[in-house]
Each structure stands twice: as structure tokens, then as C-alpha cells.
């Protein structure tokens, strides 16, 4: 098995090099010591979630929430090209976290929650902030589980107008739609820049939303002959694009 990944604060790895002993404590230290039960000599990876990471071995364990990592190598991953962003309409129940989890494991670079007109779920007030926090926590944990050094960004909730502005600046933009005349598998894709995919809610993307997105340069594309749930469509589409752009080569 590959070494487990633990998250450290942004910029915490600045100045770290092979031979350094890095202390891991707090919630991540507790998870490493008390949950994963790592012992001296076992391999471990630390990352800031922004593409920087170190590999090392456990040099010492103290108490229930502290261990020292003897750094053996340092890595820095450049931002992948092209970047893949999925605009995810809010699904019902906990299927939003499922979508974020599987898209993170697949390799999506950013997730944008979208308040589509036909969404049954609505994020408002404290409940909305709590739901957004769950999406971000899910991305963080899925990033560690899938051994990523660069975790996906989960944006603030966007309106249809804000999504249209995002689409207008993309190198390639598409709305996943079962009635799309063009297959996503045959679309002409850029090698750099941002690819932005829109995944609608259970009730579908409204005609008004389709018009707004088309005006921004995003047209309907179909994935295949079957209709996927909103919580799985983004993952399937991202996997297709990661293969086609060579990022899975």
C-alpha cells in the first residue's frame, strides 16, 4: 500500500528539505497516532493540499497526538493542465457529499456548488454554510484518501448568473444534457486553460438556464445513451476528460 497522507497548514512545508524532522500534531497528529496507529519506521506523506508534499518515515511518537517525521524527499506538483472544474447543482440529501467525494478521487480540480432553479435542496443562512463546510471537509478527506498532493477547491455557492460568468471565461465549457446533439467523447478539447462542466439537478437544467449558458459559450453535450444521476454525472464526465486530455496517460 502507498503511504497515508496527512494535511498540514498552508506554507508549513516552506523550508523543509530531506533530513529535516517535521512535527505533526493537532487533529492530524491525533489521527496518525490514535486512529491509524502509525509506528516508528512507517512511511508517511505530508501535504499542504496546494501541490506541495514531503515523504518520510515516522521518527518518534509521543502521547496520543504527536509524531515526528524524518523527511526523505520533497515534491512539488505543478497545477495540472487543462484544469477541470465541475459546476454541481445541489443534489438531495447527502448525495452532494458523495458527488464531491468521487469527483475528488477521480481528479477534478475544482467544484462549484450551484443553486439551480430546479434544485429541491436550497442552501440558506447557517444551514447553507454548514452544508458548504461539509462539501469542503469531504474534498479534504477524499484528497487525503486518494493520495493527492493538490486538493480540489470548493467554491462558494454560485447563482446561475455567476456560473454563466465562469463559463464565459473557460477555454471549453459544456452543459451535460441527455438531449445534447454532440457527444462529450468527440468534443474538441483544449490542452491548456479551464474546462468547465455543468451538472444539472434531478429536475434538469431549465430552458432559461440553458439559454444563459449558451450565451456564455457553453452548449449541451451528452455523455452516453443512459441518463446518470446528478451525483454521478460529474465523476463520469471528469473521468472521460482526464483520459482524453492525457492527464491519465
TrEMBL record:
Primary location class: cytoplasm
Alphabetized CDD domains for the sequence: RsmE-like
Record keywords: Cytoplasm, Methyltransferase, rRNA processing, S-adenosyl-L-methionine, Transferase
UniProt domain Ribosomal RNA small subunit methyltransferase E PUA-like: residue ranges: 24-70
Keyword set includes S-adenosyl-L-methionine: yes
Domain named Ribosomal RNA small subunit methyltransferase E methyltransferase: residues: 79-241
SUPFAM superfamilies in the record: alpha/beta knot, PUA domain-like
EC identifiers of the protein: 2.1.1.193
Localization per Swiss-Prot or TrEMBL: Cytoplasm
Superkingdom to which the source organism belongs: Bacteria
Catalyzed reactions: uridine(1498) in 16S rRNA + S-adenosyl-L-methionine = N(3)-methyluridine(1498) in 16S rRNA + S-adenosyl-L-homocysteine + H(+)
Function: Specifically methylates the N3 position of the uracil ring of uridine 1498 (m3U1498) in 16S rRNA. Acts on the fully assembled 30S ribosomal subunit.
Family statement: Belongs to the RNA methyltransferase RsmE family.
Protein name: Ribosomal RNA small subunit methyltransferase E
Amino acid at each position: 500500500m502507498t503511504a497515508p497522507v496527512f494535511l498540514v497548514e498552508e506554507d508549513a512545508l516552506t523550508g523543509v528539505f530531506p533530513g529535516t524532522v517535521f512535527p505533526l500534531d493537532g487533529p492530524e497528529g491525533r489521527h496518525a497516532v490514535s486512529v491509524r496507529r502509525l509506528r516508528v519506521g512507517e512511511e508517511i506523506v505530508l501535504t499542504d493540499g496546494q501541490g506541495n508534499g514531503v515523504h518520510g518515515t515516522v521518527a518518534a511518537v509521543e502521547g496520543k497526538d504527536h509524531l515526528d517525521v524524518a523527511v526523505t524527499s520533497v515534491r512539488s506538483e505543478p497545477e495540472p493542465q487543462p484544469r477541470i472544474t465541475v459546476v454541481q447543482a445541489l443534489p438531495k440529501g447527502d448525495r452532494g457529499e458523495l458527488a464531491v467525494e468521487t469527483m475528488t478521487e477521480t481528479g477534478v480540480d475544482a467544484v462549484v456548488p450551484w443553486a439551480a432553479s430546479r434544485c429541491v435542496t436550497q442552501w440558506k443562512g447557517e444551514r447553507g454554510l454548514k452544508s458548504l463546510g461539509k462539501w469542503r471537509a469531504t474534498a479534504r478527506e477524499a484528497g487525503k484518501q486518494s493520495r493527492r498532493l493538490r486538493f480540489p477547491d470548493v467554491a462558494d455557492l454560485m447563482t446561475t448568473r455567476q456560473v454563466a460568468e465562469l463559463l464565459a471565461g473557460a477555454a471549453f465549457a459544456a452543459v451535460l444534457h441527455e438531449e445534447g446533439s454532440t457527444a462529450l467523447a468527440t468534443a474538441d478539447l483544449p490542452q491548456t486553460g479551464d474546462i468547465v462542466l455543468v451538472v444539472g439537478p434531478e429536475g434538469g437544467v431549465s430552458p432559461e438556464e440553458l439559454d444563459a449558458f449558451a450565451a456564455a459559450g457553453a452548449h449541451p453535450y451528452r455523455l452516453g445513451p443512459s441518463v446518470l444521476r446528478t451525483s454521478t454525472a460529474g465523476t463520469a464526465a471528469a473521468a472521460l476528460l482526464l483520459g482524453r486530455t492525457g492527464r491519465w496517460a
